[in-house]
Amino acid sequence: MEPLTDPQQSKFPFLRQDFAASLVVFLVALPLCVGIAVASGVPAELGLITGIVGGLVTGAMRGSSLQVSGPAAGLTVLVFEAVQSFGLPALGVLVLTAGLLQLVMGALRLGRWFRAISLSVVEGMLAGIGLVLVAGQLYSAAGMEAPASGTGKVAGLPGALAEAVTSTQALASLGVGAGTVALMVVWRRTPKRVRVVPGALAAVVVATAVSVTFTLPVATVRVEGLLDAVQMPGLSEFGGLASLSMLGTVLAFTLIASAESLFSAAAVDRLHDGPRTEYDRELMAQGVGNTVCGALGALPMTAVIVRSAANVQAGARTKASRVLHGLWLLLFAALLPSALELIPLPALAGILVHAGWKLIPLRTVVALWREHRGEALILVVTAVSIVAVNMFEGVLIGLALSVAKAAWDASHIRLEVDDSGTGCVRARLSGNATFLRLPKILDSLEALPQDRPVELDLSGLHHLDHACRTALETWAQRHSAPGTDPVQLTGPGAR
């Protein structure tokens, strides 16, 4: 006789594991959704909407089965700049257009190519975001308004600290923010049974309880209601896409969100033994999610490594866990919105300071400097450029440096000379002869004797560009002294 099985269990064999994991991810996502929205200069509910869409819409699609999508700290700086420049109503247009571009890129099977982006550029991008995020949120932790530019945020910190010391309200606010960061740092060292509660949630709950109990003079989250916060973009807002600055922001949203999502997918794949990520499908899933978020006027979404890692570590087995986490966010936003009004803003600032600091890869920079100084330089220059200029141009500078370094590395060339002191001088070039190494090549060739025959073998060259070919032919014609046999070029590259 065959054993009886529960039909529901056979249909959803991992429902228990996915249900438990979804609750953990919900508890991790809740404070981050709210904190990222506030740091981006938009209503807190818009962060929750993006988290809900990331769970219910993107979470239900194929691509990467266990990574979780929602608002990301990595886009906070860019969103804040966009809202300041174009206004909140334009945010939906920016996000919707970026989502459509992601759909097109996924349909063209461009997802896999994001893996070709230099890791140093990506880490430099995250480091730059982290620096601006930390600097900006330190002002929020003190209850002050942060300067607009990245350099202004960093340069103004000493003055802001001096001003905060003289204000009781600012000191109270700083105390709540610093306590939040300290609790999150200490939380990682608590017993495992305590760490069942995510550190960010525990920090927010403690900070809220302290603020309410002692009636501290700190600002709290403003709540409008989920439906009231939705701002569907009107047709007039799409006219802004005619400006180059707005198109540049759309491109930045698209590239950064796509790169962060697909790099997160690669990292999540290393955390579990389940199905591997289908990169093009995942890019399209992100595109659908951002299109929906844009239509609702919400924040842009990416796949987020913190929530994704929590999902895997909590024992999730299928995409049901991330769909359920979106459902829990929806129920919370619909049934308990007033609970958000109790959360102190400096506590959320503390969470973002902690998240921003983790984006700065200090150990990676040290290791790269020891082994690959060129890559370390690209990382640092990308980060500094983002702070000094802006996100989009900083990433472009990093990409340009990465391409230049790749071209330089690919142009390695070697000159071997066989000179017995008398008779013909035989020289051989090997490697890649490009214009980047032309000065070095010519300096070495011009040092060869001019009063004896010279034979230059080009058979060892893998590549000979037009500039080098022309320069070598000109050198061969002019090198030999009068009365000496002209230079002979041999090999496939010779004419």
Automatic annotation (TrEMBL):
Name the source organism. Answer: Streptomyces flavovirens
- One matching Pfam family is Sulfate_transp
Sequence ranges assigned to domain SLC26A/SulP transporter in this UniProt record: 15-382
**Leader sequence segment:** none
Coiled-coil regions listed: none
Compartment(s) where it occurs, according to its Swiss-Prot or TrEMBL record: Membrane
Entries under PANTHER family matching the protein: SULFATE TRANSPORTER
- Topological type in the membrane: Multi-pass membrane protein
Record keywords: Membrane, Transmembrane, Transmembrane helix
The UniProt transmembrane annotation reads: 20-39, 46-66, 86-104, 116-139, 170-187, 199-218, 238-257, 327-357, 377-404
InterPro entries, per this entry?
SLC26A/SulP_dom (IPR011547), SLC26A/SulP_fam (IPR001902)
- Protein name, as recorded: SulP family inorganic anion transporter
